């Protein structure tokens, strides 16, 4: 494991998803899933998210679309919050989900719009 890249990834992961979210994920690390968490921090968050060629806002927009199409609701919720942190507006999220509907299918968009509304309500204190 590249410790420097791992630490960079952990820093980026916490900045995007929030320290509480990441700490909660890491408190469940054990001998079985430790290698996966290390890989996640090093490669996903360090090697890719840590690159300077795309701004975090753009990476968040891409993730929203891809994760919505994959119908990974838990990850979608986390990355939706991260996208807002990275400066993606609600209007931009709506437009991304409209694109998802056309290219990824209506069922993926229906679920994603529902989750987005729930996340917005939580943020607005209306949950």
Automatic annotation (TrEMBL):
Enzyme class, first EC level, given as a word: lyase
Q: What is its EC number?
A: 4.1.1.44
Q: Which InterPro entries match?
A: 4CMD/NDH-1_regulator (IPR052512), AhpD-like (IPR029032), CMD-like (IPR003779)
Q: Which GO terms describe its molecular function?
A: 4-carboxymuconolactone decarboxylase activity; peroxiredoxin activity
Name the domain of life this protein comes from: Bacteria
Q: Does the keyword ATP-binding apply?
A: no
Q: Which residues form the Carboxymuconolactone decarboxylase-like domain?
A: 36-118
The record's section on SUPFAM superfamilies has:
AhpD-like
This protein's UniProt keywords: Lyase
Record's PANTHER family? 4-CARBOXYMUCONOLACTONE DECARBOXYLASE FAMILY PROTEIN, CARBOXYMUCONOLACTONE DECARBOXYLASE-LIKE DOMAIN-CONTAINING PROTEIN
Q: What is this protein called?
A: 4-carboxymuconolactone decarboxylase
């Amino acid at each position: 494991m590249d410790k420097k890249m791992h630490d960079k990834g952990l820093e980026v992961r916490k900045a995007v998803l929030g320290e509480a979210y990441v700490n909660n994920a890491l408190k469940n690390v054990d001998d079985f899933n430790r290698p996966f968490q290390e890989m996640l921090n090093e490669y996903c968050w360090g090697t890719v998210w840590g690159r300077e060629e795309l701004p975090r806002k753009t990476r968040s927009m891409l993730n929203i679309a891809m994760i919505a199409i994959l119908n990974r609701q838990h990850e979608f919720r986390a990355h939706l919050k991260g996208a807002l942190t990275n400066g993606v507006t609600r209007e931009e999220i709506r437009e991304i989900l409209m694109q998802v509907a056309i290219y990824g299918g209506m069922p993926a968009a229906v679920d994603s719009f529902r989750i987005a509304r729930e996340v917005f309500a939580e943020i607005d204190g209306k949950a």
